[in-house]
Amino acid sequence: MAWPGRRNESTGPVLLDCRTIRNRVRELGAQITRDYQGKTPHLVAVLKGASIFHADLVRAIELPLSYDFIAVGSYGTEGTSSGEVRILKDLEDGLEGKDVLLVEDIVDTGLTLHSLVQNLKERNPLSLKIVALLNKPAGRKIDVPVDYTGFDIPDAFVVGYGLDYDQRYRNLPDIHLLRFGK
Ligand code: IMP
After folding, report:
1. Least packed by Cβ within 10 Å: which of 19, 43, 100, 103?
2. What are 140-151's pLDDT values in tens digits?
3. Ligand 1 lined by 111 (C-beta under 6 Å)
4. pTM of the predicted structure, to 2 decimals
5. Active site residue 147
């Protein structure tokens, strides 16, 4: 959905506290560990939002693994997804023959992820799965198969644990609802 442009905002109530997040990330790590037995997954984190989730997730996976980072921007106007992503920072390594696990912070319309998945598939990974910390099912405009989801959340704007509004709030340990206006 479209979010208001820059204006007075403040953090609202905590939606997910850091303990709840930590426990769920451990569960996701355990599940990925089971599912990728005998493999060496290559985790691709989408900057900047997924950086903190990624750092915790890799430490919850008890397997040999590698990782890389990609940064994408949307061509849409502020706060909206156009569905077309441009690569702001590309991966260092190729994906050929790798079991790639794409690590996203949040899936809303699904447009960013859909476009990114098309891009990564062209690089011939052996497999490509998606793990997203947060999912907003109500915002979905295009179907994207998210293989591992941390939490389904309501259609509200959230910040913290890597997620920003106008580049701020990423350092909050909990995930908060953001309040707009007075
Ligand atoms: P989508 O293309 O609509 O699925 O948008 C996904 C991207 O929008 C995420 O990777 C975030 O960068 C951003 N985004 C969507 N919802 C939120 C939110 O509630 N808080 C912070 N960023 C969000």
Report:
1. 19
2. 999 999 999 999
3. yes
4. 0.93
5. no
